[in-house]
Design a protein that fits this description.
Oligomer: heterodimer
Distance between the termini of chain A: 55 Å
Number of domains of chain A: 2
Number of strands of chain A: 0
Radius of gyration of chain A: 20 Å
Largest sheet of chain A: none
Mean pLDDT of chain A: 88
Low-confidence stretches of chain A: none
Number of helices of chain A: 7
Helix content of chain B: over 70%
Radius of gyration of chain B: 19 Å
Distance between the termini of chain B: 37 Å
Order of helices and strands of chain B: HHHHHHHHHHH
Number of strands of chain B: 0
Low-confidence stretches of chain B: none
Mean pLDDT of chain B: 87
Shape of chain B: globular
Largest sheet of chain B: none
Number of domains of chain B: 2
Helix content of chain A: over 70%
Order of helices and strands of chain A: HHHHHHH
Number of helices of chain B: 11
């Protein structure tokens, strides 16, 4: 029991103290998982973290499930995951309840009109960062632009683009191999 | 039944959003348009709050949307919906760790998924730019190009781009700093005209 509680509270601390999720979480993970609790070695943690990035969903959640599973099996994975999301749920619910009461104030309206401009810039920065990592050659560029144009001009679910892009990735890589 | 729908919608996001918190934005943008649960402007506010509070951005977004849609039960159900596919997939992958890590098929799929995710986020970004930096409604009414553009917003965006990308001492600051700065500018220069 105390092992599970330990997993829950360790990941709750990691979730509650990292701003910005996935990428900002690594230093905290190293300190808690590797140094303090020795649930994984440095190399193992890097593996989990890398795989957490290439399984679907939120990176922080995936990494938490991974470490929990390796430490205490399936239940450990679930407990660690609930731990990492717990602080978010409390903090966001409080803020959302607070904001919905003050949304009509002029000062709040003006503040959020300014903040939205910042959100545009943050999304733009996220796109350029991801662009550098994902658009590695010409076929990848074509996929990126096709999905961009498709989702701006067609009223389709993003799910369709994700599935098509996965299939395209396999076909393109096979084709490249045959040509080489 | 709204709770069941919330769970399923977020299950879909958790299963198909690849590449971190921002990757959930295109799904949420579509979700808002399809269900009427929240507007694009509200979505932008939620992104800002999620970026400036602790915790993974994707989880924060799910909690926020869930709360805005169906109160506290909504926030719990939306978050559980988001993390359920992750937990299932990771628990399976953890059992076949080495096979998954060395799989060429997985690598090839992700070769296609990553640029697609970038394209999706860019498209969602264009949607946010439309409501934050442009006045499409006013432009349709007057036909004046000068009415299409929100000059104050463009100016602030330009300043923020320079601060977040090019100025060395400010480049590595946490986004919450820039969100606070933008809020101050919004209040000072009455961005909403209120």
């Amino acid at each position: 029991m105390s092992d599970y509680l330990n997993l829950f509270f360790t990941f709750a601390r990691i979730g509650g103290l990292t701003f910005g999720g996935g990428y900002a979480m690594l230093p905290m993970l190293q300190k808690e998982v590797v140094e303090k609790h020795q649930w994984a070695t440095e190399e193992e943690l890097m593996d989990y973290y890398a795989i957490g990035q290439c399984t679907p969903g939120v990176i922080a959640v995936n990494t938490a499930t991974f470490v929990g599973q390796r430490t205490k099996g399936t239940l450990g994975g679930i407990v660690a995951t609930l731990g990492v999301v717990f602080p978010s749920m409390v903090i966001i619910t409080v803020i959302a309840a607070f904001l919905s009461n003050f949304a009509e104030l002029a000062v709040v309206k003006n503040a959020f009109a300014g903040i939205r401009v910042c959100v545009c810039v943050l999304i733009f920065n996220a796109v350029t960062k991801l662009w550098k990592k994902s658009v590695t050659d010409r076929p990848a560029l074509v996929i990126c632009l096709a999905v961009l144009a498709g989702s701006v001009f067609l009223d389709l679910s993003p799910v369709i683009f994700v599935v098509l892009a996965g299939v395209a990735g396999v076909l393109i890589q096979n084709w490249k191999e045959k040509r080489a | 039944m709204i709770l069941l729908r919330l769970f399923l919608e977020f299950f879909k996001v958790g299963l198909f959003a690849v590449g971190g918190g921002m990757a959930t934005v295109p799904f949420l943008s579509k979700m808002g348009a399809a269900t009427g649960w929240f507007s694009q402007a509200q979505l932008a506010d939620m992104i800002a709050v999620s970026e400036s509070t602790p915790g993974p951005i994707g989880v924060n977004m799910a909690t926020y949307v869930g709360f805005a849609t169906a109160g506290v039960p909504g926030s719990v159900i939306a978050t559980l919906g988001l993390i359920t596919p992750s937990v299932i997939v990771v628990l399976i992958v953890a059992r076949v760790l080495t096979a998954f890590r060395d799989s060429k098929l997985v690598k090839n799929i992700f070769y296609g998924l990553r640029p697609a995710s970038t394209g999706l986020i860019a498209a969602a970004g264009i949607g946010v730019v439309r409501i934050c930096l442009l006045n499409p409604d006013k432009y349709a009414l007057t036909g004046m190009l000068s009415d299409l553009i929100q000059w104050k917003g463009i100016l602030l965006a330009a300043v923020l781009v320079v601060l977040t990308r090019f100025v060395k001492p400010t480049k590595d600051l946490h986004p919450v700093v820039f969100i606070a700065l933008a809020a101050a500018a919004g209040i000072l220069f009455r961005f909403a005209g209120a």
